[in-house]
Amino acid sequence: MDTAVARPRTRYQATSKPLGIPFAFYGRMSTREFQDRLSSARWQRDFAEDVIDDRGVIVAEFFDVGESRQVPWTRRPQAARLLAALADPGRGFDAVVVGEFERAFYGNQFRDLAPLFNLYGVQLWLPELNGPVDASNEFHLSLLALLGVHSKRGVQRSRFRAKAAMRAQVVEQGRHLGGRPPYGYRLAGAGPHPNRAHAKWGRMTYRLEPDPSAAPHVHWMFAQRLAGRSIAGIARDLNDRRVPCQSRVDPGRNPHRSGTGWTLRTVAAILANPRYTGRQVWNRQHTENSQALMFIRLSRSLLCRSS
After folding, report:
1. Which residues, listed in sequence order, are joined to residue 207 by a DSSP beta bridge?
2. Measured between alpha carbons, how far is residue 68 from residues 32, 76, 108, 199, 203 in Å?
3. Distance CA 112, CA 199 (A)
4. For residue range 43-89, what is the model confidence (pLDDT) as tens digits?
5. Which of 114, 126, 209, 299 places its Cα 20 to 30 Å from the Cα of 44?
6. Where are the alpha helices (DSSP H) in the chain?
7. Distance CA 197, CA 185 (A)
8. CA 219, 221, 224, 228 torsion: positive or negative?
9. With contact defined as beta carbons under 8 Å apart, do 211 and 244 qualify?
10. At how many degrees (to 10) do helices 231-240 and 264-272 cross?
């Protein structure tokens, strides 16, 4: 009886479908505190993948966090890494795709970087063009110039709106928008945040009010200066009377100061601060400061009580 010889089964390796052009994806978000990296990177990458759909695949990702679009690519950590990778023959990608022009470029940044991309033969793909940039196409160049202007205009509009809103908050609501309270003032709660979402999260607004323990000393400084006394004499008298200086009263907000005593510079800064005199400068425009007027009235009353 013949016995069948078992032959080894031949295994055929399936050929993988060509992936197309290997891309590097670049994205960016401006802030760490008010944006979510995961969601921001996801929607930008989704837009980028729509552009290269069926034509390539993303094999590398460069994503800057907390970098303004105004910062040049050479000073953005991830963008700088991408530029350095262009010169590497083994970089692994032949083109770069972004999720949105304004996330990647500002003003004339693209025009300045285009020669570098061309030097190393790396294409740049944009959603606004639904494909690669063609430097010989006048329509492409015109559109990119328009997008650069629009990106710059967007920054200017945001800056103008932010300044206008902050000025209204100071003038209309008397709010304190951040920073160390000047000596003689203290932070006081001004109620829930006017934005309902922020209020729901427990965020509060704050204003400045005179500090009863320090306000009389500020009033005394101004009175002494008006009487013709030198700044050096005022500082010496404060130290002789062992009046706590600002860094000793509030060490948590003044870690850069020694707290050893009053100096000429500290006293001069207080006497030159318009917030104490009933006026403050906002966008280089003088406005009345009701908080400072209240400070002067309260410090005077406290000084009268102590005398």
Report:
1. 188
2. 11, 9, 15, 28, 26
3. 45
4. 999 999 999 998 999 999 999 999 988 899 999 999 999 999 999 99
5. 114
6. 37-51, 77-86, 101-104, 109-119, 138-173, 196-200, 215-226, 231-240, 246-249, 264-272, 290-306
7. 29
8. negative
9. no
10. 110
